[in-house]
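Hi there,

I know you've been waiting on this one. I reran it after we fixed the sequence typo, so this is the corrected version. Both the input and the resulting structure follow.
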Amino acid sequence: MPATNPLRRTFAVLAALPLLTLAACGYGSESKNDDTTKVAAGAEKTDGLDSVRIGYFGNLTHATALVGMRKGFFQKELGGTEVKPAIFNAGPSEIEALNSGSIDIGWIGPSPAVNGYTKSNGHSLKIVGGSASGGVKLVVNPKKIKSLKDVKGKRIATPQLGNTQDVAFLNWAAEQGWKVDAQGGTGDLTVVRSDNKVTPDAYKAGSVDGAWVPEPTASKLVAEGGKVLLDESTLWPDKKFVITNIIVSQKFLKAHPKAVEAVLKASVTTNKWINANPAQAKAAANEQLAADSGKALPAKVLDPAWKSIQITDDPLAATLDTEAKHAVKAGLLKKPDLKGIYDLTILNKVLEAAGESPVDAAGLGTS
């Protein structure tokens, strides 16, 4: 079901930010596989490929990738072609990996996808599917901040300068009538750019008074005594906003459309299974997080985080124009040409075969 309501978030240029990886081995760390992801003996290769390299983050907002890996949905569709996962913790590093050919397909947030597309003059990638909506909250210290107006003058953390949540918070602050220098993060309040991994410690230490962050960081803050002051989904008439898309290298898409179709089939299958089996899916996602990082999430973090995320095949394409306009207005992005950023041809073919409704590129698709 295509999205038609504007997002209240913006994009910002990420190119100047340092690339972050989880390991020193290339652009991302390799996921640990179990029997569910092994290639079946004698299975036929897809498009003659030995492997397909798939990137994603160790975040619950990338639940499709986590569950699809854990339950073996990707490997099943790719047959004799081995799935090779790579885990990232920053959008710029995943885009760099896609550009260098280190991965073929990736689950990623909207800001780095747009930035990667525009920086390459429309030649690097295509968004070929959706994955998730929601899962972003403003969590605050209830002793210091009791209402939205109390956010003024406080220190609020966001994950990274110019990332999706950072610009979303800046845009929300501007809507309150507060002036904040986007680059420096100073003004009527202070924006503290802090990696999601260290934000809970910063909160405990009193270095920040709150944070506008994705899950599971938001629920980790709540577990430390924080209070959800605002769920970003409430800013939307339909309570939907894109948080994760599927991107593919244009070179790989052109050379191996059957492999892309197999991955999208697996994604649609995974999303359907997640929505039909939320408890089992939540457990599977947590198991994959543990396999990838060595540590599962405790129930007090996992349960509320999972509830706030909506899994969807729709990339919510209609929101991108509005997001970009907000970024331009903030002075963080030159007016981009997003025409052609989406190619939903294969996804709609897969959806039609599954008896599902097609999704819309909102005028930003490949002509």
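Quick highlight: The longest helix spans residues 257-276.

Best,
R. S.
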